[in-house]
Amino acid sequence: MSELLLKSLEVNNFRSIRGLVHAPLDAKVVLVHGENGAGKTSLLSAIELALTGRVQALERADPAYVKQLLHRSASEGSVAVQTLRDELVHSYKSLLTLDGVQSTAALELPKANFFRERAFLPQALLGQLLQIYQEAGSDAGSPLAQFVGNLLGLDRLDALEAGLKPLADVRNVRKNVDSWPEAENEKSRLDRLIADHGRARQGIQTQIDTALSELRQIVADLALELVVGEASLDAAEAAIQDEGDTGAFADLSDQRRRLGALSREVESAQLSSGTLPPAAPEDANNASEKFQNWQYDHGDRINAFRDRVQGLFSDLSLESDPQVAAQTSFKRLGTEQKQLSQRVNQARADLSRLTTARDERVVAAGQRDTIDEEVGRLSSSAGSLGSALAELTAFITDETCPVCDRDFGQVSAVPLSEHVHVKVRTLSASAERLLTLGRTRGEVQVTIERLDREIEMIGARQLGEEALADLDRRLAAVEALTSEVTSLTEVLAEGSRLRSLDVAARRTVSETRSRDVALESARQTLSDFALSIGADPVTDGETFEAGFARLDVMLSDKASGLDMRLAKRRRGGDLIATLRSLLQRRQEEDARSKVDFAAWQRLEKQLEAAQGLRDQGNGIRNAVDTVRSAIIRREFNDRLNKVWRDLFVRLAPGEPFVPAFSIPEDSTQKLQPKLITRHRDGGDAGGTPGAMLSAGNLNTAALTLFIALHLSVPKELPWLILDDPVQSMDDVHIAHFAALLRTLSKEHGRQVMIAVHDRQLFEYLKLELSPAFVDDSLLTLELSRGPRRDTVCISQRHSFKEETALLAAA
Asked: Which PANTHER family match (predicted)?
């Protein structure tokens, strides 16, 4: 079974995310980028809320955080996560209202706890992680002690000790055992039941003996060499059925039908002839061997390619010829790739242009409102006529007057627009300004109308984010298949040629042999049939007509004498059925008697068993302390401390102090761990990590502790989600951290999701974590938002592409 992977995320009006955002997650590595406040933390918190129904970091900061999860501009929202395992999709969802959160589908409690504690590291928790463990102290009930106890299974040992404590006093043990009078009454009842079982069994045994005697007589009459008894009923039934009259009659009828068919076959064989030239079987064998060798070398790969192509195109049926099938696949894949590329490019262009057009319309609407305000102020001082003429200029497009519809060119050589402008300028000094504003407002209005039409047109054809992600996946699959069919061109051509040679050679040999052996095959078939029914074969001197007549007489003679045996075989079957029923009844009586006798024996041994169990329980209690101490030393030294040290040294190679857990050296009833630091050169243990490490390395210690705890427990969920964990790291730490993420993703099978706000760091991680082999994958999510528009999430999938430039140069 494959690993459980995150498939997609849908967020609607959650925290700083406004509107609906769809983010595909089905890749080995998912990188999230966005400026501060763009919604990165909200996106990762949405995953936690959908899977667990809670947001742990917010709950620790504010117990009433659920009322702050819904975006302030919305009245309802939701978060939904889809996971994928073996083509089976699971959905988890939480609904957001003004009153709080309602989880409709979430992980089971153990997996939800694993996700919160071992798979997801929020940004707010990173700086508090070491402090939480460091301030826990040595109290056995502290969070650190509880976690480590659960990790090592010590809570089970404690529960075992508590459960065995009553065994220390024999009086407590006796309280759990039935009283002696009750035990004696139960024993008397069982004595009576056992006697009744014996009498019933004796009656059944008498009927069995009578039926066996009659069955032995029938077996003797049928001359069967068989000793009849209770253990041989299956053998007796098989012997009767194997030589039964019904089977014999059915065989005779079948043999007569076969004899008729053979007669017609002989007639056809006598008439058949041919004039085909002879063919050498060696040529057919050579052609077949070459084609089989080709299938052995390349058949599995070709069949796998055909299955993937037909799975991608449900309406496509590939021919059996390998080369023809490859040509059909290549043509269909090329057409599909071109169409998908065009649709993906157009969808991304529409998404970018829609955001720009909406921003441009907001600016244009603001300009129009400003012009309207200024025109309103000028109209009262310029006079009613100047205002009317200024408004009229926006509608003059040629020499036709927009008021009277007359051609102004008939009465004046001056253009109509210039004439109106002169009139306006003569009214007042402010009229010129009013004229300019009227023209500008007309241009702005035209711009707004154009943008409205463009926004409506893009919105009508815009694809949803989930549909765009599905197109990306299908395009990646088509590109991979196109590359594979190109690499198989020569192999497919050779397979097609060998297949044609094999078919041609087989056909020639078949036709040649059928000409030579037609009549001989007919005689041999008749002889084989004669031998199969116990008759002499048809010799070369015997005609076909005589042979058929002889065999027909023999089959007729075999039909006689079977009626007498039929009734005895039926009676024998009835007796066997009766015996099996009686044996079943006797077995049930024996089983009930055995159960009652076992219960009687348990009453006899109960007190002795109670004392034995008490002794064993006390021995287990004594062994608990020894086992607990051994587990603590082994797990901390060999697993957790070693993994934490390796990770910390890898990210901070220049730090002399290494954080670790301090473990007890002697046997202990309760685990009391605490955090310390050790110098690489040895010596006594240092102080706590908070006192010995710098701020940057303290952040590194917390990050490596989280990853070490993740790797130290069984992998219930293969996810590692980190929210901006590199804020305090320098370039060396970041480079080592990128290498660590690459190792976790590509060698340890973890699905890594990391969010960063720095653009250069995002580009660096995208390069370092890019796909390195065929099944590897990388998804980038870029978040952006504006004060008056919804949040936008642009996804881009990066698949593995083989470098061919160096191969061509070589």
From this structure: ABC TRANSPORTER ABCH.3 (PTHR32114)
* 3-state SS assignment for residue 438: helix
pLDDT tens-digit map of 295-315: 666 667 676 666 777 666 666
pLDDT reported for residue 429: 56
pTM over 0.85: no
State both tokens at 95: 């609904």
Percent of the chain whose pLDDT exceeds 90:
8
Given this model, what pLDDT does residue 172 score? Answer: 58
Q: Map tokens 């102004």 to a residue.
A: 408
Partner residues linked to 796 by β-bridges:
780
* CATH ID of 347-466, from 2.50.20, 1.20.5, 1.10.287, 1.20.1740: 1.10.287
CATH architecture, domain defined by 5-138+673-809: 3-Layer(aba) Sandwich (3.40)
Cα 356 to Cα 209, 253, 343, 512, 782, distances in angstroms = 99, 88, 20, 78, 16
To 10 degrees, what angle do helices 563-635 and 143-152 make? 140
What's the burial of 122, exposed, middle or buried (CB within 10 Å: 0-12/13-18/19+)? Answer: buried
Residue 471 identity? L
Q: Are 637 and 665 in contact (CB under 8 A)?
A: no
How many Cβ atoms from other residues are within 10 Å of residue 40's Cβ?
24
Say whether 347-466 and 5-138+673-809 share the same fold: no
pLDDT digit string, tens, across residues 513-562:
555 565 566 666 767 777 777 777 777 667 767 777 777 777 777 766 66
Q: Answer yes or no: is pLDDT of 319 > 90.
A: no
